[in-house]
Amino acid sequence: MIRIFTTGVATLGLIVGLLVQTSAQSLPSPSTLFKRQVTFGAGGGFAGTTRSFVLHENGDLWVRERATDSLKLHKTLSDKQTKQFFQSADQLQLDKYKFNSPGNVYYFIEYNNPKKRLKEKVTWGDSKRKVSTYVQRFYNQLIKTT
Q1: Which of 37, 53, 60, 66 lies most in the core, judged by the most C-beta atoms within 10 Å?
Q2: 3: exposed, middle or buried (C-beta count within 10 Å: 0-12, 13-18, 19+)?
Q3: Does any domain span residue 10?
């Protein structure tokens, strides 16, 4: 009997904890998790922090600060701008462009297309190896939206 009560209290605590956590940070809708996403950002340096943005197909741009591990909706892009970014991501063919050369400070773009079971990440920052100018331009365009 005590065991059942303890389990019930633990379950209640877990539910309350999840509700508090969910209200503290707005999480993306589950319907957006199975669509294409472009994640981009930068990290490293003395503090070793990472700041990343996740662009969903619906135009929602989320920001994640690794120092605080918070996730929140940053803004929503127009349909036209969102479509252009995903067309560019498709044209870059990141699945064929294997590049992983981070430096002390690094930059990255990750493209996730669950329908094609594709998830590729390009990371750069090493001064001895340069990323493609097309990837760099795409990154700069993405950063301008933030």
Answers
A1: 37
A2: exposed
A3: no
Question: Residue 5 falls within a domain, yes or no?
Answer: no
Closest by CA position to 55, among listed 87, 85, 94: 85
Query: CA dist 56 to 7, 21, 28, 49, 133, Å?
Result: 38, 22, 9, 23, 24
Which residues form the domain of 124?
28-144
Q: Are 53 and 61 in contact (CB under 8 A)?
A: yes
Asked whether the predicted pLDDT for residue 1 surpasses 80, the reply is: no
The tokens for 106 are: 């690094």
Predicted confidence (pLDDT) per residue in 75-128, tens digit: 999 999 999 999 999 999 887 888 999 999 999 999 998 887 878 999 999 999
In a domain, 23, yes or no: no
Q: What's the mean pLDDT when you consider all of the chain?
A: 81
Q: What is the pTM of this model?
A: 0.74
- Count of CB atoms situated within 10 Å of the CB of 13: 10
pLDDT at 55: 96
CATH of the domain at 87: 3.30.1560
